[in-house]
Amino acid sequence: AFIKGVINLRGVITPILDLRIKFNLKSVKYDELTVVIVVNVGKRVVGVVVDSVSDVLALDSGQISPVPELSAAADVGFITGIGSAPGVGHERMLILVDIDNLISSADVGLPEMELH
Prior knowledge:
Layout: E1 3-9, E2 12-18, H1 19-22, E3 35-41, E4 44-50, E5 64-65, E6 79-86, E7 91-97, H2 99-102, H3 105-108
């Protein structure tokens, strides 16, 4: 249900996933801020619908802290760490996501393909 469709991206058939549907979150209307981020998941290229993108950052290891210990009820298997980056007048905290753990090839439901 969370696969919205596919696109041909430079000759590669690319499924487009909506993670709000995958995680049973409240749906929102797509608007001019809604974008598709293209990521590599295993050996597949996948597009992920996100509400918006505000920045693209490169963090060094000194800006990344380990995942804090949380209760067993919290699934943090797809979180790789907590990043910090300067913001306007404050320090921004970022949740760093392991996209391979967040979206598995089985989720996509398509056979593995080699990247070219």
